[in-house]
Amino acid sequence: MTRNQDASLSVTELNRLARQTLEQEVGEVWVEGELSGVSRPSSGHVYFTLKDARAQLRCALFRQRARFVATPMRDGDHVKVRGRVSLFEPRGDYQLIVEAVQAVGEGELLAAFERLKAKLDTEGVFTNARPLPYPPRHLLVLTSPSGAAIRDVLAVLSTRWPLVQVTLIPVPVQGREAAPAMIAALGLLNRQSALDPARDAILVTRGGGSLEDLWAFNDEHLARAIFHSRLPVMSAVGHEVDVTLADFAADRRAPTPSAAAEQLVPDRAELLARLRMLETRLVRAQRARLDTEAQRLDHLRARLRHPGEVLAFRRRQLEQLEGRLHRAMRARLETARQWEHQLRQRLALRSPTTRVIQAEQRLALARHRLHQAMPRELARHCERLGALARELQAVSPLAVLGRGYAILENDQGRVIRRAADTRPGEHLTARLGEGRLGMEVKECLDEA
């Protein structure tokens, strides 16, 4: 920049010139150092100094970026920051406008991402794998209306499959309001899908960016909303190396918005080429079939005989079959007559009258044997009964009574065995060999 040596600059102009030079020449850089003098005023911005052993640098982390820092920033922490070199014109302070802060080693955002990913995976939020309609009839695209993602998607769809109906659902894809807006849009689309069944797929997409830029797609509630969506969801966020929780929760992931459009619909040019190839194969197959059938027709025409010859041949066959039928009928009737004669002879041998006469003879013989056996059996049983009666009489208590003994019983029918079991005045019954006696106890005497 050439300036007049005699011209002077105001302080404001010099500071502005210095700021523009720094922002244009240095731009965005990563700087590593130790935090010092961390200040958090009520505005939500964070101011701090980044220093090493030989120098220090003033830094400003504005509120919209500060919310992406997962852990508190403390004095003495060793961090790596990404930002734009600039100059604060009112005071002429050289500073770094910070866009992202990472702990040296694993970044805090990456650590928060891995923790949330493990939590949702344990809960089964990443289990969706429903097939998407191919091609969809009505595709609902959730993205920024001014981003490159929607232009890429529409360009690919119009080239590959212009028949698909596309509805853009404009939502912010970066910042604090992005995740709630996408969650509300998903809920509305699922409710409306019941009224319009043609809406059969959702594409959630945006272009590339830093981890902080894509952080809205790592929102826990957005991942759950995608998981619970009744409509199948494809996620295409960032570039191929970018992976978000929305990608894991969706039914299918595409590495880029353009790749998502390519996966959703077939390629019209490929289908046309395939149709032309199939048409060529069909024409060839048709010609080959026609040639084959023509040859077969010529062969059949050569084999074709006059109808009179065919009728004469069929007439001779009919006469032969008729003669064979008559002979078979006569043979069958003769066999049936012989079989009937045999059955009549066998029936005569097994006549019921003969069997009745034989049964009567057996009955008479059995009756005679029964009349002879009954007196013998009766005598034998009577003799055995007498013997048993004599044995019973020998051991019967009544026989003992017959020899002059008696059995004493009280009023309850209990047998009296001892004098002590009675009392004076008690009435007893004496059972004799023949008859009974009523008795009254006058006195109980001891055995002595």
Automatic annotation (TrEMBL):
Residues 268-338 form a coiled coil. Pfam families: Exonuc_VII_L, tRNA_anti_2. GO terms for molecular function: exodeoxyribonuclease VII activity; nucleic acid binding. Keywords: Coiled coil, Cytoplasm, Exonuclease, Hydrolase, Nuclease. InterPro entries: Exonuc_VII_L (IPR003753), Exonuc_VII_lsu_C (IPR020579), OB-fold_nuc-bd_dom (IPR025824). It is found in: Cytoplasm. Transmembrane segments: none annotated. Bidirectionally degrades single-stranded DNA into large acid-insoluble oligonucleotides, which are then degraded further into small acid-soluble oligonucleotides. This is Exodeoxyribonuclease 7 large subunit. It comes from Halomonas cerina.
